[in-house]
Amino acid sequence: MKAHRYLKNVTTLNYEPAKCTGCGRCAEVCPQRLFQMENGRACLLDRDRCMECGACARNCPFQAISVRAGVGCAWAVMMSELKGWKPIGCG
Amino acid sequence: MEKDKKSQPEITCDCHGCCGSPAAEEPANSKVKYVSEKGWVLGQVETPVGPVPVVATKLGWKDKLAGILVRLGFRRMSFSVRPGLYAVGQPGRDSYIFVSANYKLSFDHLRKNLDGLNAWILVLNTAGINVWCAAGKGTFGTEELIERIRKTRLFRLSPRGTLILPQLGAPGVAAHEVARRTGFKVVYGPVRAADIKQFLGHGLVASEQMRQVRFNLLDRLVLVPVELSLVIKYLFFVLLILLALRPLGVNLLSWKVLYPYLGAILAGSILVPVFLPWIPGRAFSWKGWLVGLLWAWLVNLNQGLLFSSPTNWIRATTNFLLLPGIAAYLALNFTGSSTYTSLSGVVKEMKIAVPLIVVSAILGFGLLVADLSGVW
Fold first, then answer.
1. What is the ipTM of this complex?
2. Best mutation target, A13, A14, A29, to test chain B (most B CBs within 10 A)
3. The whole model's pTM is what?
């Protein structure tokens, strides 16, 4: 099965390893499996595959992760431009 | 996903006479209409916090039919279940508490995968929206979960229970906050409810595969009818316009005129989703444009518009401008149904693609109108 890949170098995901205490929540919640626990710390693997869902940042008790969370949905973006809806959620 | 946004419940009052259960009770001023509980609520179980409805773990034909209709976009009925507590089997003080959204499809997915277990289900009020979309909006969120735990007096019912949240609810819920403020242990279950039993069997540990969102061929094929049902709505209006043009002497209701456009629609809304990973490029609109270009070339070839008179050249150009544009636009809209696109990526893609599609459509439409009105 060929892995899906979306645009490169666009994600707003930011991870500060220094703040990580190794609780492992980010590795638990990421639906793209981008965090892996290594030597008691989270390791960010393939940043470009981030879909900016925001699960890791929301579940990090130490604010080591930040991301502008939203949904990668063209329709939602269009509606937010046209009607001033927030480009979060689905449509 | 975008489709589920429209499943907001209708605002009318009907409590189905089930308000007696304090566990699943909603405020008296609640005006939300819920799906009838007939058929899937089997009875009630007496608990320290009052009677709790017991739900079936096998889906009846009504559940299945309603599920199919909702997927196809028939949303006249509301499709939400009453938020609150439900029981599966004969749960007790140590039983797991599965958290779900009050979109009935989400709830049905959960309960059918709890067959043979004794567990509680805590349904949050997500306004009838599925877990993933509601988590993105924040309605499947930390505050709602904590509030729902308090309202249902869950700590009296299952003081040692573990809350099992769907992993796709994680964008909305800060598990550590919930644990800190309620005292409950919180774990994220697998992405797919079908893996729940395996997850429980492994001592609440999910494999990498269970935690990964997929988007394989079957996942995409399932979306085809949904994509088509969206397009058909547009087609209906186009058909009306074409019918209205007929008395004016413009007869466009012929297969020869329409098939290039129908093909472009199918290219964008079916071929791109199905062949997504194999079409070169990363941007969805680009993939759609490529397939549309191929289609336009086939149409021109079929109609003998290539390598001939200047009039035919203009018609061929019209096809090259309009058909890939239609396919690109529809493919772009598929970003919302995919499971790996990001907001930043879609915004970047749209900044480039949308102006190009608009210009191409305007030029193509101009040529088409000129051709139809016999300018050359």
1. 0.91
2. A29
3. 0.84
